[in-house]
Design goal:
The complex is a heterodimer of chains A (580) and B (85).
Chain A (H helix, E strand, L loop, with lengths): L2 H22 L5 H6 L6 H12 L2 H14 L4 H25 L4 H8 L3 H33 L4 H51 L4 H4 L11 H11 L12 H17 L1 H4 L8 H37 L11 H6 L4 H9 L2 E3 L19 E3 L3 H9 L4 H39 L5 H24 L8 H22 L5 H23 L26 H18 L5 H11 L11
Helix pairs in contact in A: 1-8, 1-17, 3-8, 3-13, 4-13, 4-16, 4-17, 5-11, 5-13, 5-22, 6-7, 7-8, 7-17, 7-18, 7-19, 8-13, 8-17, 8-18, 10-13, 11-19, 13-16, 16-17, 17-18, 19-20, 19-21, 20-21
Chain B lengths: L3 H32 L8 E2 L2 E2 H31 L5
Antiparallel strand pairs in B: 1-2
Helix pairs in contact in B: 1-2
The chains are: A mainly alpha (580), B mainly alpha (85).
């Protein structure tokens, strides 16, 4: 069977599964649509949260980023997992006790302010739309590379699938589909990693293989890799190149950004009890850790394999020739990926060989971060079904995250804007209809942006984390842990954190991401060595400070609000959602 | 709702627990993984040092233990203070 048929079969089978679940898990009420009826088992919810959280960025990009960035990029590993500790202890249980459907709804009630709720809605929509663009382009890339359809056709197919289960089933359909998608994506990520770890180290567990000896040289794998990259003039894999300050703040921004992303927080509204919200965060991290403990192994091993492929006789001898790349069977993957433009090679010095070295002037091979995971099975010459599985896994990761984000967007529109502000007397039936229509519109917008990605798509991810870290996380935390923060303080704090962070990002990336309007660059940042991607943590600090200052200068919140804070602090009395 | 003094004691115990767990969270990620890495450079593991391991794997394992330990501890506190669901 040829590779194309295999890909088609495996991806087709997973899609059939998702559609089947969609039909089985239709939503009949707003409680089911927004929060899956609050009847999801914590382990299942943890699995769904894992799929929801692990996006195309985690599945496709992260190992590639680490492969080329080395130790410095550990910030992603710590940041994208450490946020769950904050969620479990500082946010999830109390928000579950509060027992309503959306993050802006809590902010609006706790700070008794429509303005606060509106600011939260705006942050939520910007952060989520930004994220969706990345997922949709990921879907397009996976389809065009593995199923030989055009990027656009791939996007339409992906959007149609999400439409089917998200609009029909709402949070209920999405949750159960995400459970299936998690299983697909973790198998797809782990199997090639196990094969490669066995080949290189003889250890079947990649996370252990990373710190084992390499079979050919007999010395530790990381030491072998470090020797090769430094011989070729690349930056060290093991040592720190970034400043300590920037690495610290970047890790912190990713952590509190993770804890503040609304599509992750709402997952904890779906479990039956407060104690389930705590343990569910743990289960989510178990399922996330399965991938995140494997990712650094995939990164180091893929980089090693890449170098060994280009320098088959060792880095002291000549690299592969242009003729080898055009003709040799085992280098077919280079030709395949060159077609996508994500891998390029040119013979700059005309010697007929492909030099892969750290010096950009001399280097003749460039490999995009995003293809390391997808090309990994081909680089290691793994069987065809593994390649097909990786394609299905990449699609599962992108689609599951897209659905979670679209859910967050549509509930913000139908519940916070339409029901909360425009038409409070809307009937449940009409609200459900409004939720479904806004979901449809959100999918259409996401598909359009996926087809015409703005040039700044990749950079806006910094914006999404910056917004969540500097506005949403501090507002939620203060709402729970302080009875003194009032409406004025919260709004002033959120706006201060938000504006300072956005301005700092725009000063480095250009106003509204128009590149030539930037006054600074991330290689020479405005403040100390703080890159714009690391500024969310500073924004959060400003938010806390302003909120405290303004609140202490103005009156305490009303008794009713203080009682609300008292009641969310204790688990007792958390029933089903009070929808009104 | 439970009576006021009981829920105050419950909340104080919760805050204490959170503080202790956050110290561990900080030391095992930002500490061992970044700030204190030079101090741990002497401890070798698999071709690199302990700080590298904490940054890439150890911190994640500690996070896992922390969340489940917190969930268990809070279930116990919920019962002791009579505020469980």
């Amino acid at each position: 069977m040829d590779q194309f048929t295999l890909n088609l079969l495996v991806v087709g089978a997973t899609f059939a599964l998702y559609i089947g679940i969609a039909i089985w898990a239709r939503a009949g009420s707003t409680a089911e649509f927004y929060a899956a009826g609050q009847g999801v088992h914590p382990v299942m919810n943890g699995m769904a949260t894992g799929a929801d959280w692990m996006s195309a960025a985690s599945f496709i990009s992260m190992a590639g980023i680490i492969a080329f960035g080395g130790y410095d990029t550990s910030a992603y590993l710590m940041g994208w997992t450490g946020g769950y500790v904050l969620l479990a202890m500082l946010l999830a249980p109390y928000l579950r006790k509060f027992g309503k459907f959306t993050v802006p709804e809590f902010i609006g009630d706790r700070f008794y302010s429509g303005t606060a709720r509106f600011v939260a809605v705006v942050c939520l929509i910007i952060a989520s739309v930004t994220y969706v663009i990345g997922q949709m382009t990921g879907v397009g890339v996976a389809f065009s590379r593995f199923l030989e359809v055009s990027n656009a056709t791939g996007l339409y197919i992906g959007a149609a699938i999400v439409f089917a289960y998200a609009v029909l089933g709402g949070m209920k359909g999405i949750t159960y589909t995400q459970v299936a998608q998690y299983v697909v994506l973790i198998i797809a990520y782990t199997i090639p990693a196990v094969f490669i770890s066995l080949q290189l180290t003889g250890n079947p567990i990649p996370a252990l293989g990373l710190f084992s000896n390499e079979v050919h040289t007999g010395q530790p794998l990381l030491q072998t890799l470090e020797g090769l990259v430094t011989d070729l003039g690349f930056k060290s894999y093991l040592n720190q190149s970034d400043t300590t300050l920037n690495m610290f703040l970047f890790t912190m921004s990713l952590m509190i950004g993770t804890a503040g992303l609304p599509h992750v927080i709402v997952r904890f509204f779906t479990v039956p009890k407060v104690s389930d919200a705590r343990s569910s965060a743990g289960w989510a991290l178990v399922f996330i850790a399965l991938l995140y403990l494997t990712a650094p192994a995939v990164a180091a091993m893929a980089r090693l394999n890449l170098i060994n492929t280009i320098y088959p006789q060792g880095v002291a001898a000549a690299p592969v020739s242009m003729a080898d790349i055009e003709g040799k069977e085992e280098l077919a993957w280079v030709r395949n990926w060159a077609k996508t433009g994500l891998l390029t090679f040119e013979d700059k010095n005309g010697d007929g060989l492909v030099q892969y070295v750290g010096d950009k002037e001399v280097n003749e091979l460039t490999v995009n971060n995003d293809i390391m995971v997808l090309a990994n099975p081909e680089i290691a010459n793994l069987p065809g079904w593994v390649i097909a599985l990786v394609a299905a896994g990449g699609l599962a990761a992108a689609l599951s995250t897209a659905a979670g984000l679209l859910m967050a967007i549509s509930s913000a529109v139908s519940h916070d804007l339409i029901k909360g502000q425009l038409n409070p007397n809307i009937s449940e039936k009409n609200e459900l209809l409004a939720a479904r229509i806004s979901m449809g519109v959100a999918i259409a917008v996401a598909t359009y942006l996926g087809l015409n990605p703005p040039g700044f798509a990749a950079q806006t991810v910094a914006l999404a984390f910056g917004l969540a870290a500097s506005s949403i996380f501090p507002a939620l935390m203060m709402g729970i842990f302080s009875k003194r923060i009032n409406n004025k303080g919260a709004v002033a704090g959120m706006l201060a954190g938000l504006i300072v962070t956005i301005v700092y990002i725009f000063l480095h990336k250009g106003w509204f991401f128009v590149a030539d309007t930037a006054s600074f660059s991330d290689s020479a940042p405005m403040l100390l060595s703080i890159k714009s991607t690391s500024f969310g943590a500073v924004g959060a600090l400003i938010n806390f400070a302003v909120a405290f200052a303004v609140s202490s200068a103005t009156g305490a919140p009303p008794a009713k609000v203080q009682d609300l804070v008292e009641s969310i602090r204790v688990p007792k009395g958390a029933g089903a959602a009070q929808s009104h | 709702m439970a009576d006021k003094s009981s829920s105050n004691a419950y909340w104080a115990a919760n805050i204490r627990t959170i503080m202790i767990y956050l110290v561990v969270w900080f030391v095992c990620s930002f500490g061992f993984g970044i700030l204190l890495r030079p101090m741990l450079a002497g401890i070798k593991i698999g071709g690199t040092d302990l700080g590298f391991w904490f940054a890439q794997q150890g911190s994640i394992l500690v996070f896992l233990v922390l969340i489940f330990a917190y969930a268990a501890r809070m279930n116990k506190l919920d019962r002791q203070h009579g505020v469980e669901e």
